[in-house]
Amino acid sequence: MSALAVFIIFFLCLGIAIPISIGLGIVSVLPGAFDPSFTASGTFVIRSMLGGIDSFPLLAVPMFVLSGMIMAKGGISKKIFDVFVFFIGKFTAGMPCAVIVTCLFYGAISGSGPATVAAVGSMTIPILIKLGYDKVFATSIVAVAGGLGVIIPPSIPFIMFGMASGESVSNLFIAGIVPGILIGLLLMAYAVFYCRTHGEDKEKIRKEVDELHEKGFFGVFKDSFFAILSPVIILGCIYAGIASPTEAAVISVFYSIIVSMFVYRSMKVKDLWPMLVEGVKTYAPILFILAASTAFSRVLTLMQVPQTISEWILGNFHNGIVILIVINIFLLFVGMVMDTTPAILILTPILLPIATAIGMNPIHFGVMMVVNLAIGFVTPPIGVNLFVASSLTDIPIMQIARKAMPLILCFLVALVLITFIPQISLILLGGA
């Protein structure tokens, strides 16, 4: 069976709404079923699936998912939001910018785009609507800014890329900091432009900000101290070498429990069990997708698909800039139709050799890949962030997507800069 036939069957499975984990499992066993001499038998596929999930770094994923849930329940996102409203709330687009920065900080807790949208959006969208902002604009800005959750470390897609490529997860985390800040600044620039064009209800905003100012700086700081401290502790442990990303994820779970239960008293012991159950429900599908993706990527390797695609691209495109443009366009398309985890696990072995062949640093490529797929969070038909945001406000997905187009354009501008200026990703690692 040819590789082309395998991919056609895979996309047919997606088209008829077969769950992606099952679809990946089907196409993984087909080559061996049609050709008994092919190395990847059914037994090989099963062993590959089990081997794919037998990974220490992978343990960080459910821990960060659970930590994000606990902090959302504990009201951590609201505490972070209040700090930024205190400082920038009265400026033009101060409230939307505070939402974007809150997404940036919450992303450093949850490591997940959809989790960031759910936690920050459920709290900030009603506030923005109350202050007179357009409901669709408020929803779209949270949906797009939530994409920062997979770029700002810790990032679940970076963990997946580290697994697929063998690169240091800690270095990937460090490399994601400056690109994440860059994207956040571009989103804030558009928010300022939008608010200057469409106007704001300054009176309502002033009243909201004044309520915080009545507490005073020290009052707000004291109330939000432990919330702001959470990403500092998590990332500080990783970068100081105190803990691995997986160990830091476990620390974040215990920290979130202690802060939520004993500092803010916003959660009780009885609330833990439902969140543990919800965490398992969230992670179980990811685990099946991960196992099936690993098996499929190994089958593709045995079929020499990475080598074939690499030779074709390098044989037909001789300019490094053109090759990077082709890879970006391809990843943007993939992000529209495929979830992040299988996309990274399947495509990294295919695309990384091409990138390294033209002299690209693997860490830089990882950042570029994750930014591409982060854009996929807010582009139909998959657009997970759009679905989460839509569930919060009952606004149709396509309506949110249309309103989000200028924000997506900001993401694309950042992608171009990140692709062709390696220092943006590598500066904190000592250069290019």
Give a quick summary of the entry.
With 432 residues, the protein is an all-alpha fold. Helices cover 79% and strands 0% of the residues.
What's the arrangement of secondary structure elements?
Blueprint: H1 3-15, H2 20-34, H3 42-53, H4 60-73, H5 76-88, H6 94-110, H7 113-130, H8 135-145, H9 156-165, H10 169-175, H11 177-198, H12 202-239, H13 245-263, H14 272-302, H15 305-316, H16 320-337, H17 340-357, H18 362-376, H19 384-393, H20 397-420, H21 423-426
* Global outline: globular
Give the number of helices: 21
H/E order of the elements?
A: HHHHHHHHHHHHHHHHHHHHH
The SS-based structural class is mainly alpha
- Gyration radius, to the nearest Å? 22 Å
Quick tags:
432 residues, mainly alpha
Commentary on this structure:
The chain is an all-alpha fold. 79% of the residues lie in helices and 0% in strands. It has 21 helices and no strands. The protein has helices at 3-15, 20-34, 42-53, 60-73, 76-88, 94-110, 113-130, 135-145, 156-165, 169-175, 177-198, 202-239, 245-263, 272-302, 305-316, 320-337, 340-357, 362-376, 384-393, 397-420, 423-426. Helix 4 (60-73) packs parallel to helix 7 and helix 4 runs antiparallel to helix 14. The longest helix is centred in the middle third of the chain and has 38 residues, at 202-239. The mean pLDDT is 86.
